[in-house]
Design brief:
Structural class of chain A: alpha+beta
Radius of gyration of chain B: 23 Å
Mean pLDDT of chain B: 79
Strand content of chain A: 35-45%
Number of domains of chain B: 3
Number of domains of chain A: 4
Low-confidence stretches of chain A: 471-479
Number of strands of chain A: 20
CATH superfamily of the largest domain in chain A: Alpha-D-phosphohexomutase, C-terminal domain
Number of strands of chain B: 8
Low-confidence stretches of chain B: 1-13, 461-466
Shape of chain B: globular
Radius of gyration of chain A: 41 Å
Distance between the termini of chain B: 46 Å
Order of helices and strands of chain A: HHHHHHEHEEHEEEEEEEEEEEEEEEHEEH
CATH topology of the largest domain in chain A: TATA-Binding Protein
Largest sheet of chain B: 2 strands, antiparallel
Strand order of the largest sheet of chain B: 1-6
Structural class of chain B: mainly alpha
Distance between the termini of chain A: 84 Å
Oligomer: heterodimer
Largest sheet of chain A: 9 strands, antiparallel
CATH architecture of the largest domain in chain A: 2-Layer Sandwich
Mean pLDDT of chain A: 85
Strand content of chain B: under 5%
Shape of chain A: elongated
Number of helices of chain B: 13
């Protein structure tokens, strides 16, 4: 009872009909998943704009707003995998028998059933067969002698392996499913924001608590290159991996080129202005005009201009505005920068506020012994890293390679078999029966087969002519 | 079979049309030459594209003429024109590649350029190697529509954003173009098979009417109150759509255009209704009327297209979502445009079938041969599709850290793959040959087209519009 039920389930799973129905279901639900807005990829606001509250409740309850992670979709994919397994397991023994025990000496019924066959009359069985073997080899086929009780026949075969390629394709699909399942269960994604010089071992997965990594990641520097029209060309970050206080790995990552350490991948995902300055390049010219200095300075750093005078970068605004007698930042992007420098004399201890550009009411630029000119500004960027852990991806890639190879074999390697058997033809004359099959691209094989038959006929004729001379010589000798 | 009173047509002499097409090409090239002399710039991309279009159009005309009259010399000249067009097309691809510094796969314009190139190459291969001479009748018009669409889409070289700077992108898109071109070919072959397989002309009538109906229904999802049709607003200065927010396009309403589309929808529905009446009553007069309606419908469709082009090209329109007037452009509605042109094109092909079916059948290889070649092109397309998806997944993994994220394009690529996988299983295990296999090939190509155009233009449109 139980066995019959389980067998029934097994049979159903293994049938091609079930497979196709499951595939159709996958197609339908995938399509639905692209037509209805999906929760993971859309803003909640947008969803509320698109659907009425009742509608949204229904869609949510049915899992249609998150089709690709819904339990029933996962179940569907599992059933597809099971169906592939069942179908392969059910058909495998037959295929394996066919593969491992090639049919080398065809009996009469088999011979009659062949679509491609020819009968070539010969005078001598052995000479005919060896001529046929020469014909086979000349046409690029190998030849195997199949020995019977008191005669032998020829068998030629190539690419028998192609009969098994379908199983490789199915196995590779299962491997890909396995990889994606592992990733679905054990993989995770998180993000990590770092500014220059900052290090961290805490990453923030979406909708989950912070994860702690067994090592630190430090951003040594980060930057962007732009095209002439201002659109981004490249974002990069120099990262160091620090484990137990030692730098174990350094790499410059960019979009398309992640850093990989201990199965974790760090991707350049986003990039932005912190609104803070990294380096400011200044030219300071003394009032008397003969002393000029070119230097760079960071925030709160001091640079000695001469024995007595120093300059400090006190404040920097990437996009400044003045209001109520003070300067404030309007935005974080480098649009309208202002720098506040403090020039100090060691002897007198006098501090002079210098503003670039001049800000009336605040700056004391006229009192400074140096005139400052800004040459270049380097902003401190933050780099947005995406961290992903995909332990299953190697199964996926292995599966993909296997799939490619499998498909190439399935479509382009032809399993060809040729038999040459000595027989008696309709008039009881000695003849060679030549038959052949190919498991795909039969038209091309048909052509090859007729060429082969011609070649064999030519060989037989040649050998018989040569033999004919010999026989006559022999006959003469006897007489 | 078609019991339509055949319109007696003067037997076109072989040379007459060739000379006319040749003169047409010469005239167009001469006009272009005058322009070139004025600008002093011969080998630039737009000139090369123009030459491509001219020669493909010439080839298309000759292929169609061959389909109609069966004059063998046409095919010779048609292939010759295709060869020259392909040369110019290759030049345009090379020019673009050199100028952009990357293989031309970065934008939909560049992908169309590569797609058309591949299609022309495959057409010549199918013709020379497999002897499917009339294949150009279907593929060349597709190539022409492609080149025309290209003229409307943005052409300036855009620098590649960081995510696109990858060899894997090029691998991915090359494979996609090869696969899609092979799918297009299998579609054309499947259609030829159905013709050769004595599929009733009436069934084709029903199919093309259904296609036109679905197209106009699709267009009319944009129907607005008071008979307008909403289209995406276009900013000519930036040559891009106008966005309200992230993924939110601004729509403007072109008045009256909606009514025009409703009218054409009603007209293209008539043949299918008549077809159904014929199926019920068996009275063939209904089909005769339907055939005449198709002829009228072509005129109506051309008018609707002209109306749409005229209104979309010029003028400013109000938007329901924002104040003020905005312009639009044909480039903002490639999906509608492709739909309208496609509708006219299939209707014309139907007329060709209706009037010249016997000649057409004589020109084709046997049904079994066509069935086999269809299968063989799919046997090429399927591994290419597989590798295309794999290369895309690998690229996504390097760029975003995830090889599969179920975005609409990915999902539809997977659906395409599954449909062709279904085709292969049914063919191999169930021995599906002939009709059913041909339907599958047609379905597969329809899904390919949806993945290529529909997902890009319709799904985001749905999302911002829903």
């Amino acid at each position: 009872m139980v066995t019959s039920l389980s067998r029934k389930i097994w049979q159903t799973l293994a049938s091609i009909k079930t497979g196709v129905i499951l595939l159709i279901l996958v197609v339908i639900f995938s399509a639905v998943g692209t037509l209805i807005l999906q929760r993971p990829t859309t803003d909640p606001d947008e969803l509320q704009r698109a659907y009425s509250p009742q509608m949204l409740r229904v869609l949510d309850a049915l899992g249609l707003t998150n089709v690709f992670h819904a339990w029933w979709f996962v179940l569907l994919l599992t059933l597809v995998s099971l169906s592939i397994i069942a179908a392969s397991v059910q058909r495998f023994p037959n295929a394996w028998r066919f593969y491992s025990r090639p049919y080398k000496s065809p009996d009469e019924n088999f011979r009659k059933a062949q679509a491609l066959q020819a009968v070539i009359p010969v005078r001598n069985e052995e000479a005919g067969l060896s001529a046929a073997e020469r014909g086979l080899r000349k046409s690029g086929f190998n030849a195997e002698h199949i020995v019977h009780e008191n005669s032998f026949s020829l068998f030629s075969e190539r690419n028998r392996f192609s009969e098994m390629a379908v199983y490789i394709v199915h196995a590779s699909l299962l491997l890909i499913f396995l990889g994606t399942s592992i990733d679905a269960l054990y993989g995770w994604r998180a993000s990590l924001m770092l500014t220059r010089g900052e290090q961290s071992n805490h990453v923030q997965p979406e909708n989950a608590t912070t994860r702690t990594l067994p090592f630190f990641v430090r951003c040594d520097s980060a930057g962007r290159e732009n095209y002439a029209d201002g659109s981004p060309k490249k974002w990069w970050s120099n990262l160091s991996v620090i484990e137990n206080g030692n730098v174990v790995l350094r790499k410059q990552i960019a979009v398309n080129d992640p850093l990989v350490y201990r199965g974790l991948r760090f991707y350049q995902a986003s990039f932005g202005d912190t609104g803070k300055i990294d380096r400011l390049e200044l030219v300071a010219t003394a009032r008397d005009g003969h002393d000029q200095k070119d230097f760079t300075i960071g925030l709160d750093e001091t640079f000695p201009l001469d024995a007595d005078t120093t300059v400090r970068l006190a404040e920097f605004f990437p996009d400044y505005a003045v209001g109520d007698g003070r300067v404030y930042a309007r935005s974080n992007s480098l649009e309208n920068p202002a720098a506040h420098l403090v020039v100090e004399s060691k002897k007198s201890g006098k501090q002079i506020n210098v503003w670039r550009p001049q800000i009336p009411g605040l700056d004391e630029n006229e009192a400074s012994p140096y005139i400052f000119e800004a040459k270049d500004v380097q902003m401190a960027y933050f780099t947005g890293l995406e961290v992903s852990h995909e332990p299953g991806q190697w199964f996926v890639w292995a599966g993909v390679i296997l799939l490619g190879l499998g498909l190439a074999v399935v479509f382009y390697l032809v399993h060809v078999r040729i038999w040459i058997v000595p027989v008696r033809d309709a008039r009881c004359q000695l003849a060679l029966w030549v038959g052949g099959t190919a498991n795909k691209n039969r038209e091309a094989f048909e052509h090859r087969f007729s060429k082969l038959v011609e070649e064999i006929e030519r060989e037989i004729k040649n050998s018989e002519q040569a033999a004919g001379v010999e026989t006559s010589v022999a006959t003469v000798a006897v007489r | 079979m078609a019991r339509v009173a055949k319109v007696e047509q003067p037997a076109a002499t072989g040379t007459g049309l060739v000379v006319m097409v040749g003169l047409g090409i010469a005239f167009l090239l001469f006009m272009a030459f005058l322009n070139v002399v004025k600008s002093g710039n011969l080998l630039n991309e737009s000139n090369l594209l123009y030459a491509t279009l001219t020669f493909y159009a010439g080839a298309g005309t000759l292929y169609l003429a061959f389909g109609i009259t069966g004059t063998p010399s046409y095919i010779k000249y048609a292939s010759f024109a295709t060869w020259i067009g392909l040369l110019a097309n290759t030049g345009a691809v090379a020019h673009r590649w050199y100028q952009a510094g990357h293989a031309p796969f970065a934008s939909i314009y560049e992908m169309l350029l590569s797609f058309v190139w591949t299609l022309a190459v495959l057409t010549l291969i199918a013709e020379k190697k497999y002897g499917v001479k009339v294949i150009g009748t279907v593929t060349m018009p597709v190539a022409i529509v492609g080149v025309v669409l290209m003229q409307l889409l943005r052409t300036e070289v855009r620098p590649l954003v960081p995510a696109l700077q990858s060899t894997w992108l090029h691998v991915h898109v090359t494979l996609a173009m090869l696969a899609y071109a092979a799918c297009a070919l299998s579609f054309a072959l499947a259609m030829m098979f159905l013709i050769k397989d004595k599929m009733q002309t009436e069934t084709f009538l029903a199919t093309i009417s259904l296609f036109c109906m679905v197209t106009y229904l699709g267009v009319l999802t944009r129907f607005e109150k008071w008979g307008g049709l909403s289209v995406v607003a276009w900013n000519p200065a930036e040559t891009s759509e106008v966005f309200l927010g992230k993924n939110m396009r601004l729509f403007v309403v072109i008045p009256e255009l909606g009514w025009a589309m409703v009218l054409v929808l009603a007209a293209v529905t008539v043949p299918i209704v008549l077809y159904l009446v014929w199926r019920k009553t068996g009275d063939h007069r209904f089909i005769d009327i339907a055939n005449r309606t198709v002829f009228v419908n072509i005129l109506l469709q051309v008018l609707a297209l002209a109306f749409f082009v005229a209104r979309a090209k010029e003028g400013q329109y109000a938007s329901p979502d924002a104040d003020g007037l905005y312009t639009t452009s044909l480039a903002a509605s490639p999906f509608i445009l492709a739909g309208l042109v496609g509708g006219i094109f299939v209707s014309l092909l139907y007329l060709l079938l209706l009037w010249r079916r016997d000649d057409l059948e004589r020109m084709l290889p046997s049904a079994e041969e066509l069935d086999r070649i269809t299968y063989r092109t799919i046997a090429i397309a399927f591994p290419l599709l597989t590798l295309m998806i794999a290369a895309g997944a690998y690229w996504a993994n390097r760029t975003w850290g995830s090889y599969w994220s179920w975005d609409p394009k990915e999902t539809w690529a997977a659906i395409t793959w599954l449909v062709y996988a279904g085709y292969l299983h049914m063919r191999v295990t169930r021995g599906w040959r002939g009709r059913r296999a041909a339907y599958f090939a047609i379905l597969g190509f329809a899904i390919v087209m949806f993945t290529f155009f529909g997902v890009t233009y319709l799904l985001p449109g749905l999302h911002s519009y829903a």
